[in-house]
Amino acid sequence: MREILFRCSSIGKLMTEPVSIDPSLVTDEIAEIQAKKKRTDEEKAILADAKSKTLSEGAKTYIRELVAQEIFGVDFEVSSKPMEKGIRCEGESIALLNRVRGLSLVKNTERRQNGLITGECDLYNAPIRLGHDLKTSWSIGTFPIVVADCKDSIYEWQMRGYMQLWDAQRWSVDYALVNTPDDLIGYEPPAMHFVDHIPEHHRITSWVVERDMEKEAAMAVKIAAARIYYVQVLEEFDRTHRIGAAVAASAASTPPPASPIQVPEVPAIAVEELVF
Fold first, then answer.
1. Is 140 exposed, middle or buried (0-12, 13-18, 19+ CB in 10 A)?
2. CA-CA-CA-CA torsion sign (19, 25, 27, 29)
3. All domains of the chain in start order, with CATH
4. Tens digits of residue pLDDT in 69-101
5. pTM of the model
6. What are phi and psi of 6, to 5 degrees?
7. How many CB atoms lie under 10 A from the CB of residue 154?
8. Angle in degrees, CA 121, 124, 129, rounded to 5
9. Cα angle vertex 152, ends 146, 158, to 5°?
């Protein structure tokens, strides 16, 4: 079976903190440590290591969605007006960033992968090993005016993925505020969407994520656990959705008759096994 590659944009969904250690990872030693009220630093490290290999329920839900997409050949991602604006206005956002920051960067078209993750970044300034990810804001109301409003754990892990793939030292999340296409505005006040009158340097807010090798190591551990769970979900679907398994499950769920009834013997019917 091929190894699944996780997109940089999805890493954050895998990195959410689990409530407790996965029962399958609880050894006798770990159970003994968990029962203690006071633990040594070494014992705390053992528990932390087991928890780092545990997927949160949210991460498991996301992985099951990925498996369903593969089984049925359907992409679950849905479009929205903010997403459509981001696609249609990407060029304008890049141009705005270049003017405000005094850059001359062009859209990246290269997709990279390292055996664990895959991604296609927006912009990369190779000489200074600094990447840029453009986030085109939907309106004035959604545009962050300070860095505190920029920070997002999903975006942070996405940038960490890009830094690993491009061997960058820093990655900037750049929020750009540009005009919204007329046909996308809908019922909102047009003043929320037409922004050319606002000084350009007021329409770019950036948040820089610094590279952290320890977090990248944690990412690799979580992806390894995600791959294992992905295979388990596939195997469960295969096991529970075969024709033979369905017939057997149906028979097992049928309660026995109140008294013995003689029925004529029926010849066995050969059923070809379906494997997904």
1. middle
2. negative
3. 81-211 (3.90.320.10)
4. 999 998 887 789 999 999 999 999 999 999 999
5. 0.85
6. -95, 135
7. 13
8. 125
9. 125
Residue with tokens 């999340």: 173
111-122: pLDDT as tens digits: 999 999 999 999
Spatial separation of the C-alpha atoms in residues 274 and 249, rounded to whole Å: 16
Per-residue tokens: 198: 């606002």
CB 199 within 8 A of CB 139: no
Cβ-Cβ contacts under 8 Å for 149 (sequence gap 6 or more): 205
Nearest CA to 171 out of 240, 216, 122, 136 is that of: 122
Secondary structure in 3-state letters for the chain: CCCCCEEHHHHHHHCCCCCCCCHHHCCHHHHHHHCCCCCCHHHHHHHHHHHHCCCCHHHHHHHHHHHHHHHHCCCCCCCCHHHHHHHHCHHHHHHHHHHHHCCCCCCCCCCEECCCEEECCCEEEHHHCEEEEEEECCCHHHCCCCHHHCCCHHHHHHHHHHHHHHCCCEEEEEEECCCCCHHHHCCCCHHHCCCCCCCHHHCEEEEEEECCHHHHHHHHHHHHHHHHHHHHHHHHHHHHCCHHHHHHHHHHHCCCCCCCCCCCCCCCCCCCCCCC
Predicted confidence (pLDDT) at residue 168 exceeds the cutoff of 50: yes
Give residue 267's pLDDT: 42
CA pair distance 72, 166, nearest whole angstrom: 33
Residue 184 phi, psi (nearest 5): -100, -15
Distance CA 160, CA 231 (A): 25
